[in-house]
Design goal:
With 206 residues, the protein is an alpha/beta fold. It has six helices and nine strands, in the order H-H-E-E-H-E-H-E-H-E-E-H-E-E-E. It starts with a helix and ends in a 6-residue tail after the last strand.
Length: 206
């Protein structure tokens, strides 16, 4: 049976995502716009879906959880590394609103171009899509209040930590022994406070 947005919202709420801007973003951002035509019937299911080039659009719960951990809120400047389809960036854009800014860095040219076109088509022209190596972030728009890395690696790239604002949060799956732990790093001056928040499956950061 085809799932509807209200069913997905109810499921995410039951899984612990608080009602508020993040759930509103999941409700109003059309996930169907970010998946291939053959996957549209599954667009509102709470699971990752293939988008080509060996990449996936993340599970809605996972994206919502990362936004919660990063404390993304209205008016903030946010960087997403490994933007893929652009879906997570669209959710972020909804949460930060007109006073905030969202930058995607995506290394695969085809995905970057598709994300740019999809975001434009649904009216999110303010999201900047940068084609490049996400490990290096995007210094021209730093510092960022939040950095979301939507792919896993064995360590957090130091260039990303350098681009984090004071009090800002970086959320990224960090792989240890083939298991990726969702990791949050908060900047406190020259110190970085790290906490881990469960195991998740992500594509590798390329």
């Amino acid at each position: 049976m085809k799932m509807e947005p209200a069913q997905l919202i109810a499921e995410l709420s039951e899984m612990g995502i608080s009602r508020g801007p993040i759930l509103d973003a999941v409700r109003y951002v059309p996930r169907s716009a970010f998946v291939p035509k053959e996957q549209i019937k599954h667009a509102w299911e709470n699971r990752p879906l293939p988008i080509g080039s060996g990449q996936t659009i993340s599970q809605p719960y996972t994206v919502a959880r990362m936004l919660e951990l990063a404390s993304v809120s209205s008016g903030e400047r946010v960087l997403e590394v490994g933007g893929g389809s652009g879906y997570a960036a669209a959710l972020i854009a909804y949460v930060v609103g007109d006073l905030g800014s969202v930058t995607i860095v995506e290394i695969l040219p085809d995905l970057a171009a598709r994300a740019r076109e999809t975001l434009r088509r649904i009216g999110l022209k303010s999201v900047m899509v940068v084609e490049g190596d996400g490990r290096k972030g995007h210094p021209p728009r730093s510092p960022y209040d939040a950095i979301i890395v939507s792919a896993q690696a064995r360590q957090i790239p130091p260039e990303l930590l350098e681009q984090l604002a004071e009090g800002g949060s970086l959320v990224m799956p960090v792989a240890e022994n083939d298991v990726a732990s969702l990791t949050r790093v908060v900047r406190r001056g020259e110190r970085f406070v790290t906490t881990r928040h469960g195991a998740y499956a992500f594509v590798p950061l390329v």
